[in-house]
Structures are given as structure tokens and as C-alpha cells.
Amino acid sequence: MANDNIQMWTELNIDLKSHDMLLNALGPIFQEVYLSQKNRPAGMGFYDFVVGDIHGIRVKELREHAKNGGKVVATYCVFVPEELVWAADAIPVGLCAGTQFSVPMAEEVLPRNTCALIKSSFGFKLGRVCPYVQASHLIVGETTCDGKKKMFEILNQYQPVYVMEVPNKKTERSRQLWHGEVLAFKDVIEKLTGNKIAAKKLGEAIDLVNQRRLALQRLYNLRKNRPVPISGKDALLATQVSFYDDAKRDTQMLNALCDELDKRVAIHQGVAPAKAPRILISGSPMAIPNWKLHHIIESSGAVVVCEESCTGTRFFSDLVKPTQQNLDEQLKAIADRYMNIHCACFTPNDERPDDVVRLAKEYQADGVIHYNLQFCHTYANEAHKMGKRLEKEGIPLLRIETDYSDEDAGQLRTRIEAFLEMIRK
Ligand code: BJ8
Known about the structure:
Blueprint: H1 2-11, H2 16-35, H3 44-52, H4 57-67, E1 72-75, H5 82-87, E2 91-94, H6 103-106, H7 116-126, H8 131-135, E3 138-142, H9 146-155, E4 161-164, H10 172-193, H11 199-222, H12 232-241, H13 247-266, E5 278-283, H14 292-298, E6 303-308, H15 313-316, H16 327-338, H17 351-362, E7 367-373, H18 377-393, E8 397-402, H19 409-424
Parallel strand pairs: 1-2, 1-3, 3-4, 5-6, 5-7, 7-8
Helix pairs in contact: 10-16, 11-13, 14-19, 17-18
The protein binds Double cubane cluster.
């Protein structure tokens, strides 16, 4: 198996030496952050297995698909409508990276004052250490924040990139623009795959992705219980894996995990005492293996009950409205659904603080931690408004700005412990 992988990585032009270093670094981190947890649901065994072979089995499936003439479409943002990719018999994979490992590689090209998510993702391409990017036929970017937008221009020098224009406002004119972008994306995918997207196929793809969203909603709803039946770290991992696993299998595994959690809830079995402080995290997405904040919070005696982020509720809270088998209506329903995402790249974006207040109440959160990656100006700016709004509601807030390195871990732990102390009083 290991030899199979090496042959596959070689064919994908992976830098094997750097790649070995990357995988060797991941093992101990996963051991410390995940495998040391007590009382985990048995269903997490699947996710441990996935991470244990993170660049193996799934990449092999993508390669098989490609050998049979299929295409792989890589994305960096939850705005890219994956339904259109599935409907053309292509496979979408999320490429965002969450490791410090590839950041120095990216800094040889990108400005240092770029957020870690962009640098880490770009470094994966530059360093040839990510088989998912190597296995993809098209990368789809988007005009969200400036850092990503400009990175895509450079990335295009290495691999074909198509950029969707995400508007910055949610006016009627912006919605029309976005609808046009969804139609144009359909053409791009049809051209890439050679497959015409028909209403029947698109209907099936809408259902496929909606089913996964419903499974994630179910998982998150279970976290509303006290005591909470699954750790924030484990729920985050399950969400992160959804970005690149097969959607049908992912839905099955999520539902199996939820069946187990239902039983835990029935007997009041939790991963933390019922009195443990409950934290909602709101802000920038967290790509694998960015588990830093969750680990500090949960190893300080609290539990993360919800993430208002694109590796959280923004990924799955809205479904595409099922329509009749009419292509125009389906495309409109897709465009409408994606415009509901409350990314900080929009102005104004008052729906996001509203959402955080709603979620804090629904999940019985004792406090909110606003998380933004250093140099992410959109989320950093929104932290101010969020603070005012939460103050009005009497919900404690801690603002954290960090990157992927561990340099500030001690300082973060001190601040988080003080915040939890204040909540406990
Ligand atoms: S819809 S949050 S996935 S853009 S953290 S790269 S914003 S500087 S990731 Fe995002 Fe789509 Fe929005 Fe969601 Fe830029 Fe900020 Fe970095 Fe970010």
C-alpha cells in the first residue's frame, strides 16, 4: 500500500522528500490533539482512518476517476456551487490548507502580510506537497478577499485557474451578477468535462449535496445538548473531511455518527461535564490540520459547541431549494442559496452578527470567541461590530487573532483560561 502511494505521488509530481516531512509532522499532532481525547464516539474511527491515510485512499479514488476520463475540480471557497461539478460527473475537492509547514514556501512569492490560509494553500502548490492540487484538472477561485483574488492570478501560472466573480454586496444588481456567474460556471464545467448538465442530473446533484448538509445539520443540532455528546475538535474534523470525501459516503458516515450520538444523548453521556463552559467560535474557516484553537479551548476545560464559519454553519445551514426538474429554476435556486452565505467579504454584512446571536442562544453558549487569521482584514474589521452586538445581548466575547504557527500558543492559552475563568464566575 505504502509503495502504491509512493508510485502514485511520483506520478503526480510530488516532492517526496518534503511530502514525507509533512506527513511525519502530521502524525504526532493528530496523536496529541485527537487520539489523546477520552470517551470519543466510536464513529470517529472512520475520521481517524481518513486522516491516517490523508494523501492515500481518497487521492487514489480521484486518480481512478481521472483514468476513466473523469475530471477533478479543486476549490477554495464555499461559494463555488459544487452541485454543478457533481452534475457533470466531475468530483469537487476543497483545497484550503491549515498547516504552517507550507507557509515559508509561499512567502518566497507572496507578501508575508498575507493570511496563513492563503499562504499555506499556495505553498502546497509551490512545494508540490499536496496530491489533491496535483490531481485536479481545474482550480476554481473566487473574488472574495483581495489576498485570494491576487493569489489566484499567480497560481494560474502553475495550473489552470478559473475565477468566479463573487459580488461584494447583496443588492438586486449583485444577485443578478452572481446568477450570471453561476450560468457561466455551468458552461466552464461542461466544457471541461465534455458533459452537458441536464436537469435530471442537476436535480440528483442538488439532492446529493443537500443530504450531506442535512447530515451536518443533524450533527450540529446534537451539539446543542447538555452535556454535549461530541467534542468540538471531533465535530470540526468531521466537517473538514466533508470538503474532500465522496459526498454519498460522507453523508452515510455522518449519519452513522449521529445515530451513535443520539444514543449518547438519551443516556446523558457527554464528552465534558454538563457544567463545562460552552464556547461558540465565529470567524475565519479552519482547514485541516488547523485544530489549534479548539485544542487550547478544550484542553482548558471548556467545550466548543458550534462554529459560525465556513468550516461550520456557513457550509451547510441553507439547502438549495428543491425545484421541479427545470434547469433554469434549478440554476436560480443554486444562485439564491449561495448568496445567503454571510462571508465577511460582503458589505454590509449585518446578517452575520444576527446569526451569531441566534446560534449562541440555540447552542446555549456561555461565550463567543471571535477568531480571525492574522492579516485577514475582513473578519478583523467585523470583530468590532460583533463585539458591540454581543455586548448588547450580554454575551461575553474574546477576540483572537492568530496564524498557523505555535509561537503564540502559550499566550493564547493564558488569555483563553482567563476568559473561561470570567465566564465561570
Ligand atoms: S465564503 S470566509 S471560504 S472567502 S481568512 S482567505 S477571507 S484573508 S477564507 Fe473564505 Fe469563502 Fe468567505 Fe468562507 Fe481571505 Fe480572510 Fe484569509 Fe479567508
